[in-house]
C-alpha cells in the first residue's frame, strides 16, 4: 500500500511540474510597456518561489522511497527509477525557472536604464540650450536676472538619479552583460554631464558677477541722479531769486 501511495505521489509531482512548465515557461510573453515587464518579473519571482518550495516535498519522497527500498527492494527499485526521472525533471524545471526569471530581470533593468538615459540626455540637451542662451551680453538688469533664474531653475540634477544610473550599469558590468554597449552609453552620458555642469557653473558665476556689477552701477546712477535733481533745484532757486554768480555758494558756482 505504501508503494502505491508513493507511486501516486510521484505521478502527482510529475503532473504538477508539467503544469508549471506550461504556465511559466511555454507561455508566449509579450510586453508592450515597462509596467507589463515589471509585472512579468514579479510573476516569475513568485513562480521561482513556488517551485523551490516543492523541494521539501521532493526530499520527503526521496527519503520515503529509500526507506521502502531497504525494506522491500523489489518495489523500492521500481520507484527509485521513477524517482530519478522526477528528480531530473524537477532540477531542470528549477534551472529553467531561474534562468527565465534572471532574463526578465536583466531585460527590466535594461529598459529602466534606457528610460533613465533617454530622459536625462534630453535634460542635458535642454541644459546646453539654457547655457547657450546666457552667452549673449545683456544690457538690462532684468534680462540678466531672468537669464540667471532660468539657468538656476533648470540646473538641478539630484544625486540619487546619477546613483541609480550607476547602480543599474554595475548590475550589467558585474554580470558581464552588454558591458561594452552600456559602458559606451554611460561614459558618454557622464562625460557630457560633467562638461555641461562645469560650463553651467561658469555661466552662473559670470551672470551673478554681471548682475552684481549692474546693481552697483544702477545704485551709483540713482545716487547721482538724485544729486543732480537736488542741484538743479538749488540752481533754479538761485536764479529765481536773482543771485549773482559770486553770491552763490562755491559748489553751485
Automatic annotation (TrEMBL):
Superkingdom in the source lineage: Eukaryota
Coiled-coil blocks: 3-64
SUPFAM superfamilies: Spectrin repeat (SSF46966)
Keyword set includes Coiled coil: yes
Entries under InterPro entries matching the protein: Spectrin/alpha-actinin, Spectrin_repeat
Keyword Coiled coil: yes
UniProtKB keywords: Coiled coil
Record protein name field: UTRO protein
Organism classification: Eukaryota, Metazoa, Chordata, Craniata, Vertebrata
Amino acid at each position: 500500500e505504501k508503494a502505491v501511495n508513493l507511486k501516486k505521489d510521484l505521478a502527482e509531482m510529475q503532473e504538477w511540474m508539467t503544469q508549471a512548465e506550461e504556465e511559466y515557461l511555454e507561455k508566449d510573453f509579450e510586453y508592450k510597456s515597462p509596467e507589463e515587464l515589471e509585472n512579468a518579473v514579479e510573476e516569475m519571482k513568485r513562480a521561482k518561489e513556488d517551485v523551490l518550495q516543492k523541494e521539501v516535498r521532493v526530499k520527503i519522497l526521496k527519503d520515503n522511497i529509500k526507506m521502502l527500498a531497504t525494506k522491500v527492494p523489489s518495489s523500492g527499485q521500481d520507484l527509485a527509477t521513477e524517482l530519478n526521472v522526477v528528480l531530473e525533471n524537477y532540477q531542470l524545471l528549477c534551472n529553467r525557472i531561474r534562468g527565465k526569471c534572471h532574463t526578465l530581470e536583466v531585460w527590466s533593468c535594461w529598459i529602466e536604464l534606457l528610460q533613465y538615459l533617454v530622459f536625462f540626455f534630453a535634460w542635458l540637451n535642454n541644459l546646453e540650450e539654457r547655457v547657450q542662451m546666457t552667452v549673449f551680453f545683456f544690457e538690462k538688469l532684468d534680462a540678466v536676472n531672468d537669464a540667471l533664474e532660468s539657468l538656476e531653475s533648470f540646473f538641478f540634477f539630484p544625486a540619487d538619479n546619477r546613483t541609480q544610473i550607476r547602480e543599474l550599469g554595475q548590475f550589467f558590468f558585474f554580470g558581464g552583460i552588454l558591458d561594452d554597449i552600456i559602458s559606451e552609453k554611460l561614459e558618454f552620458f557622464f562625460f557630457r554631464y560633467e562638461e555641461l555642469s562645469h560650463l553651467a557653473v561658469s555661466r552662473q558665476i559670470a551672470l551673478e558677477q554681471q548682475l552684481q556689477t549692474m546693481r552697483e552701477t544702477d545704485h551709483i546712477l540713482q545716487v547721482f541722479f538724485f544729486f543732480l535733481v537736488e542741484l538743479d533745484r538749488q540752481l533754479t532757486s538761485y536764479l529765481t531769486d536773482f543771485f549773482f554768480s559770486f553770491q552763490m555758494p562755491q559748489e553751485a558756482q
